Known about the structure:
Layout: H1 12-33, H2 40-47, H3 51-54, H4 61-85, H5 92-104, H6 107-118, H7 126-151, H8 155-176, H9 180-188, H10 199-214
Amino acid sequence: MSQPAFRRARSAEAKQVRETAILDAARALGRERGIRDVSLTDIAAEVGMHKSALLRYFETREQIFLELTAEGWREWSATLRAELAARTAASPADVAALLASTLADRPVFCDLLAQAPLNLERNVSLEAVRAFKLLTLQEVALIGEELARLLGLSEQQVLDLVATATGMAGALWQIASPGPLLRELYTSDPRLAHAVVEVEPRLRRVLTAFLTGTGAAVAD
């Protein structure tokens, strides 16, 4: 079925609708194929416009996905903080489990977390990178308020913990998503069984060890 003819947005509201459609298309394609395999042409075709028309809304493919990464940070942070705020007390293992499960439940966000420092931040304007970094710092600070309340973590410990959690989530997701041919190889040879990774349990173990190593304890 042919795509509907593209009409350029003329109002601010129409432009916002078009930008949302572009982001939704990129998110859906990323979920289906993996972020690194989605091109600007793919996104334009999914929305029903030519690539040159799409560039009126976003400067580059990377800007689209960096915006989705920022959106992912806001959504993940809000969910995690709500889970933490509902608790009057939590152990390091409890917090590690919440971090691991809320990240593992968001495979597209995990994929974006890996791609952001590798290439998304390298093909956008400096102002776009600045805005993205400041947003992540704001979300980390909000998460930190709950972690300080529950575990007495310092600002630096919060920064280290969240950086470890998000960095490991991105890396583990890449390892856990090798594609069908490699997965078949790994599962067919017992000697390669270690290459089959589940994100949530491994991330939980790493973060539990991290928090135990910091001496984190339930705050008084």
